[in-house]
Amino acid sequence: MPTINRQISFTKDQLATIKEKASQPGFSHTQWGDDDLLDTRRIIREHYRNEQRLKCAYCMNPIASISANGANIEHIIPKSKKIEFIFEPKNLCVICPDCNEVKRSQEVTGDEPNPLKRNAIQYPRTSGAFKIVHPHFDNYSEHIIHANRIYIDITPKGHWTIGACKLNRFYHRFGVCEELVEDVALIEEEEAFHKFHEQPI
Ligand SMILES: [Zn+2]
Predict the structure, then answer these.
(1) Each residue of 134-166: pLDDT tens digit?
(2) Which residue ranges does the record assign to the HNH domain (predicted)?
């Protein structure tokens, strides 16, 4: 099952606010944080917090249940690249402050990886259109093994996501240390467990 099964559906009033904002001349992604979108952001954040059961869409670590800064709204196709998808329900999710910091610094330097395989006019409706493990379309555990601090790719999508979101940050900071070795042992135990249970009787 994907991480998100139900996209946000905006009310008539919320859609009117969105439409008005998006139709302002010169509307750009830098206006996402404007005060008149405060309520819209709150509604989106709360919806995906619940839908994702307080887990970050990229690293699966816990996100804050109350603090707005601890649960950042993410545009899966970056809003700086595709302004037309800035309010697209399937393009939205919530992520943790660390993943957000990675994405934010990429936006500042203009180095955001583009998760789309090819350019899209309409928002794609299938997993295959994306290089990223998409929380609305993909089952995370089919693409990435995540045990404590380690992330291992199972598929090209998993590989792309681990790289784009710099998920192995613990390893990059501390290298191979005791905690990491313990995590590897945990993964090996899990794999052995699954193999054992997958064997035909
Ligand atoms: Zn995260």
Answers:
(1) 999 999 999 999 988 889 999 999 999 999 999
(2) 56-103
